[in-house]
Specification:
There is one protein chain. Helices cover 34% and strands 17% of the residues. The chain is of the alpha/beta class and 145 residues long. The chain has one domain: Alpha/Beta hydrolase fold, catalytic domain (Rossmann fold). The protein starts with a helix and ends in an 8-residue tail after the last helix. The mean pLDDT is 94.
Length: 145
C-alpha cells in the first residue's frame, strides 16, 4: 500500500505545472532508508535515491516484503550515508550487504561511512545530499545564492 501511495503522489505531481515530476528523488532516513531498497524498485519514476542511516532489516520477512528481493531491482543512482557504529543497521551485517545487493551500476552508487552511530553529521548529510541531487538532477534553476 505504501508503494501505491507513493505512485499516486507522483501521479499527482505529474498533473501540476509548477512541479518537476521528472525530477523526483527518494530521501529515506532510518526506517525510510531501509524502505529505500524497496520503493525505488517498484516506482521507477524515482530518478535517484539517498539513504540516510539505512540498511537491511535483520528480522525475517515474507518474500513479498523482504528487501533482499527488491534491492537488486533498484537501478537508480544511490547515495548511502551511514554511521560506523549504528546499532540499528550494523555496518558489516546490514549496511554493506544492502549496498552490495543494489542493482545500481557501480559508477552510480556511493557509500560514505562516518565515525558515528545512527545519526550522521548534519552538515555532511546536507553537503553530500545536495551534491548528489545536483549531479543527477542538475542544479536548481533560479535559485539565489
Amino acid at each position: 500500500m505504501w508503494a501505491k501511495d507513493l505512485g499516486r503522489t507522483i501521479d499527482y505531481l505529474e498533473t501540476r505545472k509548477d512541479m518537476r515530476a521528472d525530477r523526483v528523488a527518494y530521501l529515506g532516513v532510518s526506517w525510510g532508508g531501509s524502505l529505500g531498497s524497496v520503493m525505488p524498485a517498484v516506482e521507477k519514476r524515482i530518478r535517484l535515491v539517498v539513504l540516510n542511516v539505512g540498511g537491511l532489516w535483520l528480522d525475517p520477512a515474507l518474500p513479498e516484503a523482504d528487501e533482499i528481493n527488491y534491492a537488486p531491482r533498484v537501478t537508480q543512482p544511490v547515495l548511502m550515508l551511514n554511521g560506523e557504529h549504528d546499532n540499528y543497521f550494523p555496518l558489516e551485517t546490514s549496511q554493506k550487504p544492502l549496498y552490495r545487493l543494489l542493482g545500481t551500476p557501480p559508477a552510480d552508487k556511493k557509500m560514505i561511512v562516518y565515525p558515528s552511530g545512527h545519526i550522521v553529521p548534519r552538515v555532511d548529510f546536507m553537503k553530500e545530499t545536495l551534491a548528489w541531487l545536483d549531479k543527477y538532477l542538475g542544479p536548481v534553476q533560479g535559485a539565489t545564492q
